[in-house]
Design a protein that fits this description.
Length: 295
């Protein structure tokens, strides 16, 4: 990493905040331990993740790499993609026409409107196939299966929209319960790539409330991929229709489920600001070095 500083931009989508770093301005990609420091809320800037992009090749779509605050790379992030789309508009790289973003979890089509305040993303198809999520065991759809956590039997559905999800339909939502059970479910051996976790309560046929434990990030106010997966599960179980408002602690996302569980997500993005990160932040270890968390 050359130079003494790195430029960054910060946005949030319903309280789920991301730092954007443009390779053209920031130099070489930060190492995982540097990403952990950048995302740390006491020893760095503080965020739920880092978006590294745009990475462009001639004739190819805009590409972004998405990193969790623990330094691991995520396949896809709904809020992250909305934020990245807004960033591209703010830099004058796109207008209000649909365009393609390439991610580790597949290409998506995004469209920015109302001057960047609202972004919709065609997130791709949700699959419940154990081989795609992945979930260990014989090939099957992961619908209403049992998982035991601390002696409690939980019924869950597995889904992927380019990244793994474990959705538990619950009558009552309790953030404390999610914070207790979420980290244990995330690393359960049945999920070889770990998993995002959503506890979901059906409000009516067109609305759903969820609490989220995000893989690599922890308890999260909002998540676009989580909202997409939970809505798809509710529709698959016959609990909700195709147009679902997903309520999260940070706000509401609108999810539309098309044919073969193709999901479109729409919601707001807010620009927080921009700044300069001094590389001195990486010089010294701190007391939480072994247990970094951005959440």
């Amino acid at each position: 990493m050359t130079g003494e500083t790195m430029k960054f931009y910060k946005y949030h989508g319903l309280g789920n905040d991301y730092i954007v770093m443009d390779p053209a301005e920031a130099g070489p990609k930060p190492a995982p331990e540097q990403i952990r420091r950048i995302c740390h809320r006491n020893y760095g800037i503080g965020s739920d993740g880092l978006l590294w992009g745009p990475i462009q090749a001639a004739g190819a779509p805009f590409r972004v790499r998405i990193f969790n605050p623990d330094g691991s790379e995520a396949e896809k992030s709904g809020n992250g993609l909305r934020i990245f789309a807004r960033y591209l508009m703010d830099r004058g790289l796109i207008g209000e026409d649909p365009f393609v973003i390439a991610t580790l979890g597949g290409d998506v089509t995004a469209q920015v409107s109302t001057g960047g305040r609202s972004v919709s993303v065609e997130m791709g198809q949700v699959s419940f196939d154990s081989r795609k999520i992945p979930v260990k065991g014989a090939p099957r759809e992961i619908i209403n299966e049992r998982i035991d956590i601390d002696g409690e039997a939980l019924v869950y559905c597995g889904a992927t929209i380019g990244n793994p999800h474990c959705v538990i339909i619950d009558k009552d939502l309790d953030a404390g319960r999610v914070k207790t059970l979420g980290p244990k479910i995330e690393i359960h051996p049945v999920f070889p790539n770990r998993t995002n976790v959503q506890f979901a309560k059906v409000l009516n046929s067109s609305s759903l409330a969820i609490e989220i434990w995000e893989r690599g990030a922890g308890y999260t106010l909002a998540s676009g991929s989580s909202a997409s997966a939970a809505a798809a599960v509710a529709h698959r179980l016959g609990l909700c229709g195709r147009n679902i408002s997903v309520h999260m602690p940070g706000g509401v996302l609108d999810i539309t489920i098309g044919d073969e569980f193709a999901v479109t997500m729409a919601g707001p993005v807010t620009r927080i600001g921009q700044g300069i990160l001094d590389l001195e932040v990486f010089e010294h270890k701190d007391h939480t070095e072994k247990g970094f968390s951005g959440a």
